[in-house]
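Residues pack. Consider this:
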Amino acid sequence: MIGSINSSIIAATANTQAQRDEESRILARKSKDIEEVAEQNRVAQIKEAIENKDYKIDLRKTSEKMALDLLNV
């Protein structure tokens, strides 16, 4: 009797953990999907700005990034 109760508790605990793991995986996928959509939107905005000749390059930011990249910093 006690053995079957313990087995039920263990099974319920394992099931609850499995559900939590699945929920975590679903949330991670949704988060990744949201990031991908945001990135695609940003790319589309930049592309449109380039086509409209409205895209402005921040020379200071770009040169700093290039210098740091060259210095491997």
